Amino acid sequence: MNNFLSAIKKFNAVPLYLFPLLYLFIGVYFKILVGDLSLTSVDPDYVYFLSGVSISEGYLKIGHIDHPGSPLQYLIAIVLRITYLFRKDAGIPYLEDILSHSDLYVSVVNITLTVVMSISLLIAGKYVFRKTGSVVYGMIIQTVPFIPFIWYQLIGRIVPELLLPIPIIALSAFLLGHFVDKKEKFDTRDLIILSVIMAFSLSIKLTMISLWLIPIVIVKPWRSKLLVIALSFFLFLVFAIPATIQIDRFWSWISNLFVHSGNYGSGSKNIVDIISFKSNFNKITQLYKHFTYLVVFQLLLIPVSFFWFRKKQYDFKKIYLIVSVFFTILIQAFITAKHYAPHYFIPGLLLGPLLLLLSIDIIKEYYPGRALVILSNIFLVIVIYWHINQQLINVNYASQGVGNHVSAREETRHYAKTFEKESIKIITSQGYGCPLPEYAILFSTAWLANPLKPRYNEILARLYPNTYQYTTFDDRFRFWGEEFNPQKIIEQKIPVYLYLEYDTDELYNKTIAKVFGDSTNFRVEKQLIFHNEKNGEGLLKLLISNK
Questions:
Q1: CB contact at 8 A, 137 and 129
Q2: Residues 6+ apart with CB under 8 A from 460
Q3: With CB atoms counted within 10 Å of each terminal CB, which end of the chain scores lower, N or C?
Q4: Residue that wins the pLDDT comparison between 180 and 245
Q5: What is the pLDDT of residues 122-156, one digit of tens each?
Q6: pTM surpassing 0.85?
Q7: Quick one: CA torsion of 85, 91, 96, 102, rounded to 10 degrees?
Q8: Quick one: CA dihedral 538, 541, 546, 547, positive or negative?
């Protein structure tokens, strides 16, 4: 009989494989759709990639510590080393293989991120099912990474946001299990788990700081609160070692973010621009209307719950948890409204499933009975169905945009592959990606730690000779190896090609002025060899001669 019941329970858990498999399928689909990431995404994808390369060589004092994003950098370093184990028999040195096949290594990292998230969803779903006995609750927790509609602009890339659901899923599952176990307080083991989750979340992205409000509110007494805060801070310094060993620079970055009203520490020193703040806050509420309705519902549920249970012997811990989650989301909305970008609000959105389940639990306690339990489960099944249907809509919409963008770039890359091997390539772009794969590496080497640059530049000059890049946003002309030498080009009759992000006379003239400077000794004529009608890119052959 026990074996029969065990088999039935395992069968009931089958639906918990739905969302993990769906996430895995969507992740692989977008990876195939995006293809070579260098075509479409460079910042921060390749910046993190090169940071991971540095860490994989044992160098922790890296150039990019802004987010700080340390777990992603560690993961990249591990994946690179493991991937190379399957390729080292070719006899190409580690660093050269990575830098000459960067798109391949980046693809493996992206697939690894997708697999890690899928496994995390399965583990969390089964844990919640085991604790609550409800497969529906387990599936609701698994919807966490599907909530942000911009997720499908990220899932094929290498960005820290792809790791953000993990600590929130872990926190949601842990808190649900804690209340199911009806523990009177958080014991030492619980406090350590909370601290690890808090530290790990902040080491991924600084915007996760709002999450720390939850243990501050629900953990008692004050000694335990202080223990969680202190341990979380200590563990953060451990997890984010690249930032910790450069704490002065890291603190300066954080200070500028707080003091200035613009993005990335820019703008006026007024902390918050009231006009922009109001506009951005309105964008958040309009962009995620269903989520806004759920949060607004808490404004009614919280005071009604305190009033309803005030004269009853009721443990208010669950209501305090709802209060802490509510204000965490509100704080996240304020942070996002200060420095607006849609992905900044992801930490708040990911708390939606936890908030929904807690609200359902509170409502069921108003009138305990089987009818309300059945109705709540029907409602949650409808939510699950809505999530699945919404993913089909979002995937279809996002894949069209990504597919069109990639196919346009691939047309230009296909033509660029016809350039002679010894030709000189000048890249004028400040976009997120480029048909010439050299651009991704050249762009991101700016974030390399200074001690590493000479060795990397030496290798890159050998792997990608005669490559030059002009970025208009900072008016800089970068290159590996030899300086641009027009006289040598003329004497040796070296073909010269120019890639323009936008094929306009203005951008062409600006590029020529930067490349040749004040020199009046040379005549430059252009020959358009390819114009991309889909995105405006241009490939030109430059004919250089003496005057």
A1: yes
A2: 99, 441, 442, 445, 480
A3: N
A4: 245
A5: 999 999 999 999 999 999 999 999 988 788 888 88
A6: yes
A7: -50
A8: negative
